[in-house]
Design goal:
Four copies of one chain form a homotetramer.
Chain A (H helix, E strand, L loop, with lengths): L13 E6 L4 H10 L5 E7 L8 H4 L16 H7 L2 E4 L6 H10 L3 E4 L8 H8 L6 H6 L1 E2 L2 H9 L3 E3 L3 H15 L8 E7 L14 H4 L4 E3 L6 H13 L5 E7 L6 E8 L9 H11 L6 E3 L17 E8 L4 E8 L3 H16 L15
Parallel strand pairs in A: 1-2, 1-3, 3-4, 4-6, 5-6, 7-9, 11-12
Antiparallel strand pairs in A: 7-10, 8-9, 10-13, 12-13
Helix pairs in contact in A: 1-12, 7-12, 8-10
């Protein structure tokens, strides 16, 4: 595929590295970064496929991303790139991110190691947390709610997929004091890429298709991430029941959130609550608040960094019901990482991210 | 397909009619009744396809169910059949069921007209309810909880698909006083056959596949059915938030139910609650209670009349979380109808229903 | 799940073993045999899961097939069962089947080891063929075309899934001399269970869904099986181009076959050719020949032992086009094995196999 | 979604209209044109939804394409746009395209009316063909093979989806005299968007999912289009057996083509034939020829204008087997239309079309 010569003078591009480029989040980073106008994909690492070309492992990238995959080596990443995106299984970033930071490389970590305090990490992940020094440096990259801190950061911890959808859906209500964060129920549903590319019968087409199930009920490691950031951002103690379900589709997350209306919002109409949401996200290029009676669908954001939100006040029960959807690989992983990157660099927040959903 | 001559003397069979045989519930009734050892499928009606053979409309039934479809005529149904299964859109049974009952035909109605009191029906269905006389005769056919009344009934109102899964999952806890039915949250997910065979873009493969959405949030007509029968069976006032979601699969319902533990059950372990459930369903041939930590999947009951239930006590929040799954076309429609039929006739409850799930 | 007491005197049942019970063909054998009226499932083996119960590995079988899985031991199989169904990867039956036969156990082998002469096996499977003595004993179990030999057999080699659909679709034309078997093109499509339960990215839901591909083009090991049995049954030299494709579904095979009409059939109408097919399969309980202009769909035979066939004479090109469909796990594996078993035992051919397709 | 201010001076954009914007090809045109750097989407028409906004009908376009849909009126299209893309059911372009052309509007027609001579159109489409004058003006827009004529055209007839995949896969061999076009077999498979958004049970999720079928066997209207352009471009009489199949996926076409090697190519290796293909498509930015032994998958081109091709010489049978894949809505419809538009305007052929496949 050639390049359009627009006759415009060439700007310097920023060299970046993707560490863990052959998992699903990694290959999605490649998809986004390879077309980012300000970026050069200078390095991609994969310990499983080192020595092969990216397009050998993923033939859909033939002619698009043919660079050779390298083993991870902090020194060589530092030579090649100004910033590294880490897309690794839990536990790896705790080791690799410090190695990169010590060499001056900026880091956006898509894994779970730096999202919650060490004590919570140890409890829910059953692993040793990363060194405290780096934990403190890492800024939680829920862009819409942490934009200012991300802007000045050298190390961003990118939110988990479920927490992104859950927090974007609930924070306007929680921060306005409209809903009590102490009694939330989050019923979450995800496509199968959320579980990564690892092979087990639970990912086999024959066992996922024409099937639906709950998993990790009352024990999912995203629970403390949601509670912790409801508290750090919303300012009040949060307690949530969180249930994950597997949908027979590749991409997409939908979270249905149920919260008891606080006194302040009792008697408010759906339209009034929607107005609060619209106001909250007025300057957020990726959040779309739906009209009353319209409910977002995962396919309506597929392949994009969008988060769509619908809600209703259920007066019979005094509850607010919020439905939020994202593409778990984009806004829930690689896309939000690029969004944070844009903010860190002072570029337009949507640079390289202006895709139209692939529908149908 | 021939018949196995087992050398056993032939018993008289009961002639039955399926009214509305070409919708998805109707064709599922045909699948089950055509192999029922005590039954002869004497008549099948379809106003859309009258004059065609069942196997013209559904070629998979060639050589299995080739009978000609008739228009509905109460008199002719009464001549041909002792019992009629009605599988019709809302509003039709209100008219047809009385016509059949007046002619002495037993009725099992799979529609929604007779499941809730007329005032609720009018409010949620926006239609005139059926005559009170017949409403009173109709027994709510949640077999496991109403077996004795079904046994003596001439007119059974078969439960809705979502209510079947929801009630089987919650009634053991509600009836034991373990959970407060006044604050329940039911997050329900269904395959697309739940919406029937009617065509609109919402059923188009290209818009359902690789997609997930909520629908009829806070307004689904199964809400009052669940509340009403939690009350009539459980004996206490119920109030539920019910949300329906569409899963990109053909068959299957999964309901995730969240209830606050009442004082009586506070401190109980998951295992102790499971024991209550096991005890409750000890004699129910179609309910399987899973071991702690195991969660049922819709595919594990596909094509069968089974309802599988898993649960956990979430001590952090003081909640009971129950997951129940059924095949919406079988236990949620045609299968439960046959189960009720068996009970009405005094046959073994599982006659003609002993299928093994089609997995994978 | 209880049992219906029909008050009929109990007949002696035949004890059988399934060797390799946890692969997809194995679990399908369990589904069929557990409800077979003449059979007792006496043993199920699985080297991967020995010591677990069948329902631990496949929870959908809870209460239906809870027997403990054993390691394979020819002696113990011989003690427990009169007949063993082998559902194993290529190469294993070559060793295990002789061990069982030497102990007097009848064998139905669902693998590929005994379907073709040793020289072809070596060439296409790249493995050593089984001992000649047992090769000679094994009868190719394409029931409709080898019923008499199967009836007297102690060792049946069950056909492959693609060959079953291909041969049933083509043999009526080839045997009648209507089509030249020297220039056939077989374009075949299969659901993903055809590749077994083994995990690799090629089976991952995210990479199978919303995707379609060809595989093993011009090199699939079912090619010589089709050619060989076109010759042994059809009596003339066959040469076929065979291409396999992967369909994003769990079950089902459809083969589109293209053959040049021989002089004998030139000028024949579609209806006349259909009449030959109908006549050929007049006494075959599982083959359904469709009317002109109707084309079979894989879903129309799902879960059953049926093979549906449609065809047309394309006069523009002088070709016969035949489309045949089966459920690859039933008629293409476990179901045909049970059918052969029925024939070996002198039972009705459809004993335990009278299922209605699960549609939709 | 905002716009990135790149500080580059603004170029004048070309106003375009999409006629029939709410069918699947129409909404795909909107997806591509709304992000095209040289284009302004000035008008979108839909007789079904006139007066609504595009994003009312397709909420995924909220904030992206909110323009109001108009009824078709040739005069108003002529006022608003320099070029109109027609995405209409068969028969409509015959009337509308002339109205637009007479008013000086350039036309790219995505329908079937102008692709084949009137006599063939009448025979296969069972409709009156368009006026001869306009037929003669319309250039067949198989860009890779007609680039020069497209460059000077005011009226382009965009190829059908199946013909695009079939012709790109076969023309290099046919034009080189390597394969005889008189005996081709094209076994084609398509996702369900190929059938449009019209609703009938054949598009219902429950009947498409977990299913595979052939349709319009030996009678598909794309047959004469393939034959005709094999002849006009390849220069020799063509005769093909063409079979269409429906794959349970939304997007994607795969064509498996079988051709007898002509004397000239007898004995050639797969690698040598691949070299001819690579040479043929050396300057085609959207065609990727795979290495020997690698087979393209539909998902590897999803959402893009790419066509991937794999092939093998089957020496046993003397045949060439070619597999080609496209996204039917992009290269098979809207994308190729934009590609032709780029060529007509003298822009880079891939302007606005440099997407990375959405994988997985």
């Amino acid at each position: 595929m050639g390049t359009i010569d627009t006759g415009v003078e060439v700007r310097p591009v920023v060299p970046v590295a993707v560490v863990g480029a052959t998992g699903y989040a990694g290959v999605e980073l490649v998809r986004l970064l390879i077309r980012h106008p300000e970026v050069q994909l200078a390095m991609a690492t994969s310990d499983s496929y080192a020595g092969k070309r990216m397009s050998d492992v993923y033939p859909h990238l033939s002619g698009i991303a043919d660079l050779e995959l390298a083993s991870f080596d902090a020194e060589r990443v530092a030579e090649a790139a100004q910033i590294a995106f880490l897309a690794l299984p839990a536990g790896f970033s705790s080791i690799m991110a410090p190695q990169l930071r010590e060499r001056g490389v900026k880091v956006i970590d898509l894994g779970g190691d730096f999202r919650i305090p060490g004590s919570l990490y140890r409890e829910w992940y059953k692993k040793d947390p990363p060194p405290e020094r780096w934990q403190e440096e890492a800024v939680y990259g829920l862009t819409e709610w942490n934009r200012d801190r991300v802007a000045g950061a050298a190390f961003v911890s990118n939110p988990g997929c479920y927490p992104t959808a859950a927090l974007l859906g609930l924070l306007p209500a929680v921060c306005a004091g409209g809903v009590d964060p102490g009694g939330l129920i989050l019923d979450a549903k995800s496509g199968v890429t959320g579980a990564g590319r690892g092979m087990n019968p639970g990912n086999h087409f024959a066992e996922v298709a024409e099937n639906f199930k709950a998993y990790k009920v009352a024990s999912h490691q995203h629970t403390p991430e949601i509670e912790h950031h409801l508290e750090t951002i919303g300012g009040r103690r949060a307690l949530v029941s969180f249930t994950a379900h597997l949908v027979p589709m590749g991409r997409g997350i939908l979270v249905t959130a149920y919260g008891q209306l606080a006194d302040r919002w009792r008697g408010m109409s759906t339209e009034e609550v929607l107005e609060v949401y619209r106001e909250t996200y007025r300057d957020a290029p990726f959040v779309r608040v739906r009209a009353a009676g319209q409910w977002p669908q995962t396919k309506e954001v597929r392949g994009t960094n969008l988060c769509d939100i619908g809600l209703t006040v259920e007066s019979r029960t005094g509850r607010l019901i919020v439905v939020s959807v994202i593409d778990n690989l984009v806004k829930g992983a690689a896309g939000q990482a690029v969004q944070n990157f844009n903010v860190m660099m002072g570029w337009p927040e949507n640079a390289g991210l202006e895709r139209v959903p692939l529908y149908p």
